[in-house]
């Protein structure tokens, strides 16, 4: 790093990032291209409690939008020349589409205020499907894995999971999600508090957390992250829901966190706690709160700059530039 034609440290976090990616990949001159994006979609039974600004059917409608290329993640995936896979892991209604990967485990989770969100078999199956989808991508040559999700109600699920893992007050972890009105925030908070009291997930047991208060797309993202980590492929983590999935992956195997880069800081207030628990620092803060993997896709060119700098810059010797005097 210090032989390249720049004052040492002058490329700031890009220098750290390049070294981190070299360590992750065990490659002195790593590459993060081509990137691959997987969006896992699923519904959440807890939406019946009135915790989202949008109706549940938007999950399926947005999946159709992904398939016809009209969503933000389509635009940004194209921008970074990423392959994009859309996986139905548990959308409440049936969706058809040639390009859809149909891996539906059930028609959305159960309302975790009343019963467990899913069975142990379903949680493990979702992790396994995520793992396999990522593994297939990596076998095809993907060098950086971007994960995204679509699921109306999943900020409630993610806040519940984060409250269970962190032991923090629910109040500090709840946000507006897709944009609920201010007066609905206390209700959302109470729904989560009620669920945690009724379900009592074991904070040290990631499967128990998923079974009691989880989401199918969260389980699948965690599984995909474990696959990428086990193949030494850098993982670009998206916003709040994706970072909570990263915490589940870390609980399953703490080494997985060594392969994660948090792309951006989400507007959701709980994201700060999630990122701290992951012991990471987001690369950018653009005030994003969309999901779909959109923030991670937007940040991918930063990883590209870091790795290309390492690979393509001249050294002081090769360029005949005088090195540092002091
Ligand atoms: O990624 C984030 O930080 C993020 C923050 C807020 C909302 N979202 C997206 O919005 C949906 C969940 O919001 P909600 O209000 O229905 O819980 C889901 O489809 C997420 O992809 C995503
Ligand atoms: C329109 C819309 C698009 C989304 N993408 C991810 N979550 C979303 C939620 C809504 C409501």
Automatic annotation (TrEMBL):
The active site is at residue 292. Its EC number is 2.4.2.21. SUPFAM superfamilies: Nicotinate mononucleotide:5,6-dimethylbenzimidazole phosphoribosyltransferase (CobT). Transmembrane segments: none annotated. It catalyses: 5,6-dimethylbenzimidazole + nicotinate beta-D-ribonucleotide = alpha-ribazole 5'-phosphate + nicotinate + H(+). It is an enzyme of class 2 (transferase). Pfam families: DBI_PRT. Keywords: Cobalamin biosynthesis, Glycosyltransferase, Transferase. InterPro entries: Nict_dMeBzImd_PRibTrfase (IPR003200), Nict_dMeBzImd_PRibTrfase_bact (IPR017846), Nict_dMeBzImd_PRibTrfase_N (IPR023195), Nict_dMeBzImd_PRibTrfase_sf (IPR036087). GO terms for molecular function: nicotinate-nucleotide-dimethylbenzimidazole phosphoribosyltransferase activity. One of its GO terms (biological process) is cobalamin biosynthetic process. Pathway: Nucleoside biosynthesis; alpha-ribazole biosynthesis; alpha-ribazole from 5,6-dimethylbenzimidazole: step 1/2. Catalyzes the synthesis of alpha-ribazole-5'-phosphate from nicotinate mononucleotide (NAMN) and 5,6-dimethylbenzimidazole (DMB). Belongs to the CobT family. This is Nicotinate-nucleotide--dimethylbenzimidazole phosphoribosyltransferase. It comes from Anaerobacillus arseniciselenatis. The gene is cobT.
